[in-house]
Amino acid sequence: MVAQASQAYGPDARRAVAANERAKATNEENAMNEISLATQRYVHPDWFTARVFNPTVAGLTRIGLSVYGSRILAVRGRTSGAWRATPVNPLPLDGERYLVAPRGVAQWVRNIRASGEGELRVGGRREPIRVVELPDEEKPAVLRAYLRRWKWEIGAFFQGVGPDALEADLRRIAPDYPVFRVVRAVPDGSHDAR
């Protein structure tokens, strides 16, 4: 098509056709990304959670009162670069810490996947972190421990699966719940497994 345009109409037409083909390819790629995002699970917070519960927990955590281990996770936006903050419940388990997304692929998940780093904040303390996302086969033990600790708060998001569920049930739901192992950043820019 580009060769035909250049023969019939010259270099300007060839550039226009090439640009059009690039735009078409980009639009097709964007459509595929939208389809894959549309199939990813996300549970939107209800009015009470969005307007009362999360702001209360975030406010208490910001002033230094951690609610049952809560932290503010701050991550740079993947397109804006601006800091985005949300309350999270880091899970300590077997000497590691994990971040679990009980609502699924939330904006903080997309941002931390893009950057691989952020900060855990409580009061005036800021802990720079890096994260590694767990593959689905490594999630069941973390999901079980997370449900044991916070079922009262997040159990409704786990499709009827609780901390005493069969391993097969936890494996079945694992793809719907992003889980990240926290890797503490150290000053020289490398990272530490703690």
Keywords:
194 residues; alpha+beta; Pnp Oxidase, Chain A; 2 domains; eight-stranded antiparallel β-sheet; 6 helices; 8 strands; 43% helix; globular
Q: Could you tell me the number of beta strands?
A: 8
Indicate how many domains the architecture comprises: 2
Query: Helical residue percent?
Result: 40-55%
Fourth-level CATH superfamily of the largest domain: Electron Transport, Fmn-binding Protein, Chain A
Largest sheet: 8 strands, antiparallel
Distance between the termini: 56 Å
Question: Can you give a write-up of this model?
Answer:
This protein has 194 residues and is of the alpha+beta class. It has two domains: 2-38, no CATH class; 47-192, Pnp Oxidase, Chain A. Helix content is 43%, strand content 23%. It has six helices and eight strands. Strands 1, 2, 3, 4, 5, 6, 7 and 8 form an eight-stranded antiparallel sheet that branches. Strand 1 (71-76) and strand 2 form a beta hairpin. Helix 1 runs antiparallel to helix 2. It is globular and about 70 Å long. The protein starts with a helix and ends with a strand. Residues 1-7 and 26-38 have low confidence and may be disordered.
